[in-house]
Design a protein that fits this description.
homodimer; 338 residues; Farnesyl Diphosphate Synthase; two-stranded antiparallel ribbon; 2 strands; magnesium (chains A, B)
Chain lengths: 338, 338
Amino acid sequence: MGVVIPLEDGKNKQASVQPLVDLTKADMERVNQLILAKAGSDVEMIPEVANHLISSGGKRLRPMLTLASAAMFGFHGDAHVKLATSVEFMHTATLLHDDVVDESDLRRGKSTARMIWGNQASVLVGDFLLGQAFRMMVEVGSLDALDVLSTAASVIAEGEVLQLSVAKNMETTEDDYLSVIRAKTAALFAAAAEVGPIVAKTDRSARNALKSYGMNLGLAFQLVDDVLDYGGKAADLGKNVGDDFREGKITLPVILSYRRGTAEERSFWKDAIEGGNATDANLEHALGLITRYGGLTDTIARARHYGTIARDALAPLPASPWKDALLEVIDFCIDRVN
Amino acid sequence: MGVVIPLEDGKNKQASVQPLVDLTKADMERVNQLILAKAGSDVEMIPEVANHLISSGGKRLRPMLTLASAAMFGFHGDAHVKLATSVEFMHTATLLHDDVVDESDLRRGKSTARMIWGNQASVLVGDFLLGQAFRMMVEVGSLDALDVLSTAASVIAEGEVLQLSVAKNMETTEDDYLSVIRAKTAALFAAAAEVGPIVAKTDRSARNALKSYGMNLGLAFQLVDDVLDYGGKAADLGKNVGDDFREGKITLPVILSYRRGTAEERSFWKDAIEGGNATDANLEHALGLITRYGGLTDTIARARHYGTIARDALAPLPASPWKDALLEVIDFCIDRVN
């Protein structure tokens, strides 16, 4: 089950994350060492749970953003490695808590930690990783970086609660949805990119450029993620097609299809999402409506809109391989749908 | 159902928290204002959940420790108020997560947040409060205070996971149990008391004195709490007698009674705690064994031992009403059992 997503015309080359991976390779090895060290504990269950998720093959996009956004301003040292690791721990803690909140059984194609060790361990190991993240930030000693990342921690949690409040409510607008993804996803991308120039002690304009780049990249990334939930294959995605539908999560493809539909179709959506009637047959019907109303293609168009803002945010910065790699990541995040 | 706990001989006056309450009254009003402000959010569910717990009548012992341990060194200003609020938020976040982990239905005589708003909101609002706590610490701008409190956050979570690992294991020793309560409870008392001298910029010896006072007070406090679980009345305690027993939590009264019992009695404990056979009849029998083997009186004796260490930790400090109030709190924490 899935929806065919049309390729954008006139594009020859698939954008890749590889240039960013190559440029940050040496520093990412230090990040990976630090992840292992700081997820360690005499309490055996902690590294077990942490490593389950950490080793499950995420792209580590967020820490790469931190490394690149410091290195592009000539920064050398430890601070960006510690902050990149903090960012990844914040992300991992969020995933552990999310899986409890969403009652998910699969993530990246593997059983979630809560299915193996229980909700209790997932909540508490998440708390531990968050604590470790803050300890590393304190080691770095930059109050500006601490301010950016602690604010992000609050905002992310606020966004998750907001998502809970709008769940199963078909009257959610595109603006409500944007508030949710801005907080729960884009805020960490923005913080990850902003702390690079902070430790590199750039001027304010470079810091603002990276923050804006991260924020808009994060929005594009989440929009595409929400498309993939309806369009991807479980094997590629590491989760099941239609998970959001079954959980009654309101994402942009659904919002667009609902608002553009007939009264009868809106009743269908209310029954399926608000009424919790998310059967396989109803998912099939929902996919049909999403295709008819351009729910996926127009969500991708919105993602391109934010991608363009991210691109313009970096425009004033001098040309460099780092800048090129960060720009290519925008297209990579969006092209994932193909 | 409950156990009679003998009064200590030769004590006339019941120790009270009142002198500490009186001395910190003006600053605690500022803490309470800040709690309301920082638990606020446009996302309605956040203040609802937070205020449910915040308004439920806890003693606010931890923030009072922070205020007193700064004020006793002549500190005036905002920093101790912000740090006291951070400490209370860290504590509240832990309670929200604990209730999810323990599947508790009652706290301080009221339904837990998770029973009203669900586990999801409890996890996420806890995360939000933790984020807000760090933001306030960052506002204060003391890297030393940030170090102490972020380390406490990690250690608390580590202690909770350790508790999970030793749960339902009757071979848990008193030392294992002490490691758990040192991390999950005493570490925050220690941090709460240590950040006072930090913002007051005292010498290292005063800082160490308050840290040691907090750590040992926290141990005494938790030991007595664990006694109250078997000895208190639900109405006083705000929870049910025997909750720990029903959850298979190993606390010192049980450890002592198990280790001092006959082979037959040890089989009973294994069946009840490890086998999850925590019926009312078994609780009644457990209470009988705990009484026979002095499980409660000897746990209180252990609490007095740590109380004495806390008292000696403060001994070198000059006499003051603050010092007297902090010393009286030690006895207050222990005398709660009467």
